Amino acid sequence: MITPDLENLPELGEIDLYDPERYRTSSQHPAWHTLRLRAPVWPQSTPDGDRFWSVTRFHDVSTLLMDDKRFSSAYGTILAVAKGDIAAGKTINLMDQPDHAGVRLPAMRTMSTRVARDRKEAVRRHVRRVLGSALDGGTVDFAELAAHLPLAAVGDIVGIPESAWPGLPRLAMAGVAPGDPSYSAGAESDTLTGAHFEIFAMFTELVRERRRRRRDDLISVLLDADLGGRRLSEHELVLNCYSFLMGAVTTTPQVAAHLIQVFIDQPGTWRRVRQDPALVPTAVEEALRWASPTNHLMRRARCPVRLGGTLIDEGDLVCGWVAAANRDETVFAEPYAFDPARQPNPHLAFGVGAHRCIGGPPAQVVLAVLLEELCGRVDEIVPAGAPVHMRSNFINGITSLPVEFRPGGRSERVAAGAATVTR
Asked: Which regions form coiled coils (predicted)?
C-alpha cells in the first residue's frame, strides 16, 4: 500500500503481475504505476503459457467491466482459472446476459440499499458479538476478528444458520488463496477440494430444506429465479450460493483490516475520524478505494476490440487491475493519500456495470457499523506485531494483523453526532 518511489519505478521487464508470492512480500503499486504511464495495455503469460492483457488505467478498466457485450464473464473472471472455470455459465459471476439478469435481478432485492439500511441495528448486534471484549484493551489479531464481519452483514440474508458462521471464513479463504500458509491443507488442489466439499455440503442441505419450506432469504429467492422459462438446477443453486458467500466473506474483511492499518500508520487520521462521526460514510468509501480487496477482474473478448489503443483479438483474456485503477492520478487527486473526506470518490472496489457487486450495500453498512463502534469505544490503535499479507494475486488480503485497542470514552458531543449518523 506504499507510495511508489517515482524516481525508481520498475522497468517493464521486471514486472510480473501473476506471481502470487509477490503480493505477499511486496507492493505491486510501483508496477501498476509504471504500466499506467508506459504500457496501459500490457501482455503477459501465466506459467502455463496462457496469455492475458493487463489494463491499469481507470478509463480502460471501467470500459472493460462495463462492456458486457464485447467482453464475456462466462469463461472465467480471475487469473487462477485462465484455462477456463469449471463453473462457467452456471453462477451469477460467470454468466452473460440474459441468464445473468435472471439471477441478479431477484437477488438484488435481498441486498438493496434500503434492505441493508433497515437491517443496520441487527447488523450492529452481530458486530458487537464478533468484537466481544476486543475493544476493551489487550492484544487481538484483528485480521482473524474481521474475517467474521461479512456473515454479520449477510449471513441472515443468504439464509445460513448462525451455527455455521464461525467455520465458514476459513473455508472461504482457502477457496481463493489455497496456496497461502494460513489456509493451506497440503497441496493446493487438496485445500480447494476440502474447502469446496464442506461448503457445498452445507448449501446442498440448505437448498433441500428450502425446497420443502421457503423462507425470507436468498436461497429461497434463487429457487424461484426464472432463467428464460427454466429454474436453476440443484447443482447451479449450490454453486450460486457458494458464489454469493465467497463474494462477501473474502473481501469485506480485507477492507476492515487495511483501514485499521491506515489508522495505525496515521494516528492523526484516526483522531480526525473519531472526532467527526460525519466522516464515517466517506471514510468507508475511501477504505474501499484504498484497499481494493479484489486486485483484478478478468474478461474474455467476444470479438476483436480496441481497448486503450491496442487491438484485442477474439478469445483473448483481459485482466482489469481494479487496484491500479483506484490509484489513477488522472481520476483521484493524491491517489496514494488516504483521505477520509474524499469526494467525489468513483472507486471501482465493487466493480461497475452489469456485474457490479450486489453485496455492496451490506458491506458498506457493516463497515460503517464497525467504524462507529471503534469511534465510540477506542481511543488509540497501536501495532502489536507485523502484518502478514496474503499470497494471492486476486485478493488483496491481510491474514494476520496483531493490534492493541486502547479504550477511551467519547464526549457527549461526539456521541450525539454518531447517533445522528446512525439514524
From this structure: none
Determine phi and psi for 32, rounding to 5 degrees: -65, -35
H/E stretch holding 64:
helix 58-66
Hey, which residues does 333 pair with through a beta bridge?
A: none
The average confidence (pLDDT) of the chain is: 95
> For residues 56 and 322, what is the distance between their CA atoms, to the nearest angstrom?
7
The residue type of 241 is: C
Asked if 342 and 331 touch (Cβ cutoff 8 Å), the reply is: no
> How would you class 233 by CB atoms within 10 Å of its CB: exposed for 0-12, middle for 13-18, buried for 19 or more?
exposed
- At 253-267, the pLDDT tens digits run 999 999 999 999 999
391-405 pLDDT per residue, tens: 999 999 999 999 999
Instruction: From residue 342, give the alpha-carbon distance in Å to each of 289, 309, 324, 356, 375.
Output: 10, 31, 18, 21, 19
CATH code of 27-131+138-422, in short, is 1.10.630.10
Which helix (H) or strand (E) segment holds residue 24: the answer is helix 20-25
